[in-house]
Each structure stands twice: as C-alpha cells, then as structure tokens.
Amino acid sequence: MLDGVIYTARDLAHQEMVRAIRQGRKPPIPLENQVIYYCGPTRALDKRVIGSCGPTTSSRMDALTLNLLKAGLKGMIGKGARSPEVRRGIKKYKAVYFLTIAGAGALLSTKVKRAKVVAYKPFGPEAIYKLEVEDFPLIVGIDSRGRDIFKGGK
User: Fold this and answer.
1) pTM of the shown model
2) What are the backbone dihedrals phi and psi of residue 77, each rounded to the nearest 5 degrees, phi first?
3) What is the DSSP string of 6-39?
4) CA-CA to 110 of 20 to 30 Å: which in 8, 37, 45, 58?
5) What is the pLDDT of residues 20-49, one digit of tens each?
6) Is the per-residue pLDDT at 153 higher than 50?
7) Among 138, 119, 102, CA closest to 9
8) H or E, element range at 86
9) CATH fold for the domain made of 2-148
10) CB–CB of 88/36 below 8 Å?
11) Of 98, 95, 99, nearest in space to 32 by CA
12) What would the pLDDT profile of 121-145 be if each residue is shown by its tens digit?
C-alpha cells in the first residue's frame, strides 16, 4: 500500500516532458526520485476528489520511458508487461515498476485524498495531476534488479 505523492502522466504528457528534456528545459514536474502513474482520471462526481482513475497500458509509454528514467524517475505504476529495453532501464537506473488493479478505477479513486492538475491542463484527462494517495494498492512488476513478474519472477 503506497502513501504519498504520485503524478499521473499518459502519452501526451510523456511526449511533452521528453520534448522539454531534449530541448534542455525542465519538465513541469520534478522527476528526481518521483513516481508516475499511467492514468487519465475522469472528472470528479459528487463530492469526490477525483473520478475513476484506473491504470492504462504501460507499454504505450515504453518508447519514452528511458528518457524519464535517465532524468531521475524512480517508479512507474500501470498495468501490463514492459519491453526488454524498459526492463533493462529499470535495472540500470535502480527504479521500480509497480502494477495496480486493472478494471478497478472507481475503487482506486477512493485511495486518492487530494488531486490537482499541475501541468498541461488543456490535455484534459491526459493533463498531469498531482495525487496524494493513501493505502494505494500495488505489487512490484519489475524490481530494481530487473526481475520481472511477467518473466516468472516472484
């Protein structure tokens, strides 16, 4: 169960952050020792903090992930297997890839205590949100030694 701050980022946000890094600019969020959740939350309903916020398929970010790992990213949360290149990058940069419950976005939203758009607001659900989470359920998909649950790891 994870407690603390994580940032959401999907395809468009990844493209923009990598563009900034390649142009020598700082990305709009701190990447050093940070965790990114591959998620595009829906609009909050009633008095909730956030709408449904389930994980998206992580492999869609694989082409850009090494750039973020090199910039200091230490954790990613999503669903599904990662490419061999990302697995090697996770090991090289001593990061961790976490998996969370797919198909349970409504349940996961109850673990978010605060949510705020912090970058790329025009992107709608693909904007970057700063989330404060409590008891957010995770398992390790790829550990910092490159051991991959999808490759028979435990």
Assistant:
1) 0.94
2) -125, 130
3) EEE--HHHHHHHHHHHHTTPPPSS--TT-EEE-B
4) 58
5) 999 999 999 999 999 999 999 998 888 889
6) no
7) 119
8) helix 84-92
9) fumarase (3.20.130)
10) no
11) 95
12) 999 999 999 999 999 999 999 999 9
